[in-house]
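Give me structure tokens for this 290-residue protein.
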Amino acid sequence: MSILTPPQAPAGPPPVSDGARNVIRVLLVGIAVVVIAGALGSFGTLAWGLSAFRVVTDHQTLPTTIRSLTLDTADSPVAVRITADRNATEPRIDLRMVASSRNSNQYLRVTNDANGTHVTVDGAADGILDFGDPGEVTVTLPPETGRRLALTVRQNTGVLLAQADLDQLTASTSDGAVVLRGAVRRVEVRAQDGDITAREPISVGESFDAATTDGEIAVKFADVAPRRVDAVTRDGDISLSLPTPGPYLVHAQSGGSATVRVPETSDAARAAAQINVRSDDGDVTVDTLR
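Here you go.
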């Protein structure tokens, strides 16, 4: 009979002296201090960055008899929104910007002369953001005031949202889209880098003239097409939808493909409207509104 001897328990780790324990404690505490200091530093930097931002607002009332308004956003990268409010008793303009420096102090400068009302986004804008302090300018009009208003908007950077009925709209932008809605007698839009679009059919009574260097043009016309439509882009597609019945005198040029699916005529006297479209590097489509 063999007797089994239980295996011996493995040897434990060598005892650590009190001095070694102290050294380990110091190292752990040092690592913890470095981690906490780094976290606090990051939070401190974030808090400093957030504390540098603040909201700047300005509000100005426009003349109730206004007939001409020119809005110039200068170098400020702001969106411009034109709206109609049936509850408004007077036209007004509001500025709301996110200032990235305590030295930024922008405001609306309003002047009135024989040529109409002029509004400029003015003041210092030396923020920490390379592209400038972003914001929004909103023009609110009573509906009747809007339908009598000739509006000019000049922007370097920012989208234009024209969402009110106007008499005339003249807009120019270097970097930003133009979005149209409502009814306007005459439209003239110039863009360098941005699309010109209408998300739903718009009513244009007299003429529509849109040109962009690098962007698409996509517009649908409701009711009756304006007597003259000009749409030109260097790099982008053009899509126009025209109401029935026509016929239309269409001149379409394209560096890609040109498709015309509306009733046509070569007689200017019989034409419901003259349509001139050209894309140097893009497709052109002119079809019937559906």
